Amino acid sequence: MKDWNRLFILLALILIVIGLISSCRQSEKPISLQPVAENSNPLPPKADLVDIDQVIGQQWLLQAYGRIGSERETILKTEITLQFMTDRISGSGGCNRYFSSYQGKDGKLSIQSVASTKMFCAIPEGTMQQEQEYFKALQAVTKYHISTNKQTLKLLYKDSKNNLLYAKKGE
């Protein structure tokens, strides 16, 4: 009888461990970033727009970028940031600090040539390529959308078929 109790307890523990492991496993399904239909207007009606002036000084952290519906997440251990000031932007490209001037109103945004420091970062692998892609995308931005709760920012470029998706950076 003692052996059956031990066997039952051992079996129960094994099932608990298997259950814990399977519930901790990350989903293999990619994160859905709510793609926008190609022929739809990616911005909300004008009445719902939050103006750039309302987020001056706020830091944004890039979460993903690229073609709408197939965005790529940023490389782990890189932090790409953006901050709007009265007439310029600045932030980190993941390796180098950058800055530029901008003009934005009513959902439209143009960012001038980006200038940056010239450091080289080999780790994590791909950081420099990601940074160059980011700077190129910034300079191509034509539209923006800030969520009404001011927690997310979307910058659209290349005929609004590509975007930079940011989340408000914690204080």
Distance between the termini: 60 Å
Fraction of helical residues: 10-25%
Radius of gyration: 22 Å
Number of E strands: 10
Main beta sheet strand tally, sense and closure: 10 strands, antiparallel
Structural class: alpha+beta
Compute the number of helices. 2
Shape: elongated
The oligomeric state of the chains shown is single chain
Rounded mean pLDDT score? 79
Give the DSSP E fraction (strand runs of 2 or more residues).
25-35%
Spans where pLDDT lies below 50 across 5 or more residues: 22-41, 43-47
Secondary-structure element string: HEEEEEEEHEEE
Describe the structure.
The chain has two helices and ten strands, in the order H-E-E-E-E-E-E-E-H-E-E-E. The protein is an alpha+beta fold. Mean pLDDT is 79; it is low at 22-41 and 43-47.
Outline the fold blueprint:
Layout: H1 2-24, E1 59-67, E2 72-73, E3 81-84, E4 88-92, E5 97-105, E6 108-111, E7 115-116, H2 127-140, E8 141-146, E9 152-157, E10 162-168
Antiparallel strand pairs: 1-2, 1-3, 1-10, 3-4, 4-5, 5-6, 5-7, 8-9, 9-10
In short:
The protein is an alpha+beta fold. The chain has two helices and ten strands, in the order αβββββββαβββ. Helices cover 22% and strands 32% of the residues.
Task: Give structural attributes.
171 residues; 2 helices
